[in-house]
């Protein structure tokens, strides 16, 4: 039930996020599609009417004119023109609907992609599992490119299902009106088939997840094959034996192709179930209604109408089932996109006053490091060193804060609203001024900057590399050529000028500063909570006047203590952290997006 509730939640979000968000465009697409289908049906009806009129030789009255269906060329031309114009209108309406559907798909995909970058650039991830590779940008690329495209495909599938679904409901109403008992028996068949269709949907989603799971391993195996072929000289027979028996018959490659075949096969399973239901339904109709016709000698017209209505119902049911199976195949990717949005918090600048202090308590789910403090307090002027298992950036800031504060979402949100972070790889907005890119206030003038940089011993370096006005537009090339210590100093000065309560600083950047600049910066943090984040290299831990050292592990704070405590236990800390370093820094092969370019017909 939990899985079903999650599925319902994701589907409800997708419909609201796509169709309801773009309801005007969606309505126009559905309306024009309905017009096109209606004119096609009208054309068929008109052709049947003309054929029956010719067969009977009846006289047709149209306005004040009478036409003999068998002999009137005028009536023939009128019917032909009516059919022609009806088909032309149908063709235009369907083309208009499909072309606008493609535009909407593109619009929604671009919206989904922009939203990923917005959340990534302006939001914070909170409560993300340890399996998430924080340092791997491919995660964001996958969300922005592939998963966003899958969301747009699902939007089109849902829209493409609505008209068949409406037709399906109308056909059901017709069937109930003609023969209620027989229709209820057919419903029983459909209910039984729904159980099997649900299993097919689960099978499709499972294979879709497996396809992604084994894609990376398959890419690694392919790279190994390439490396082996480049370095060994073997006969074609030996090569074929090795490839066939060793690689393609087992392991990640076989599992990947099995999952791919299963993903495609799921549509055929859905089609098979629908065809079985169709066959059983026809059998029941002929058996029940046929006996009634034989015994009573009437009811042939009802039988024909019932068969036509049943044909519409089952044809549209097959189409709905196929689309539903296709959406379920995309469900793992859509769910991942949805979970990213749920886990990403964009903190508004509410102006709320943050708490005066925060309490840090080492985890109780894992044994604490020997001699660890029971708790620590962070307040204005506190300076803490954090031995992190992930590098500091916007993507990991929420995760680090969440770990420090014991995974309290509300405390984390409050802290993030008044937090600033500074990394060694600070980027610059292209063709913007220094003030715009770094966010210096209007009150902070070039003279103020000169005073600060002079005290840090960096003014001459700034004067040689940068324009003398904070409001002068800079090109990306100028920013790339600036000395790293100057970049970091400018970013850190910006943090000091802000009214934030808490600053997280990447220790890697502090290393680039001369002692005078580093001391000046840290001394001016006396009214803020300062956290210096160490990643992998802890040699300089304790060199920045830290009052306390906190060690991360298992996504939590596993120890807290003085500099002496850290030095006594640094081997134990690294032993706990090592598996997470291996997971975070592992550089595997790309999956090459092996399943990204499937045609829409595959869905």
TrEMBL record:
Membrane topology: Multi-pass membrane protein
Keywords from the UniProt entry: Membrane, Transmembrane, Transmembrane helix
Keyword Transcription (UniProt): no
RNA-binding found in the keyword field: no
Domain of life: Bacteria
Primary location: membrane
InterPro entries the record matches: ABC1_TM_sf
Annotated transmembrane regions: 27-51, 71-96, 154-178, 184-205, 272-294
GO cellular component, one term: plasma membrane
Compartments (UniProt record): Cell membrane
MF term (GO), any: ATP binding
Protein name: Uncharacterized protein
Source organism: Kuenenia stuttgartiensis
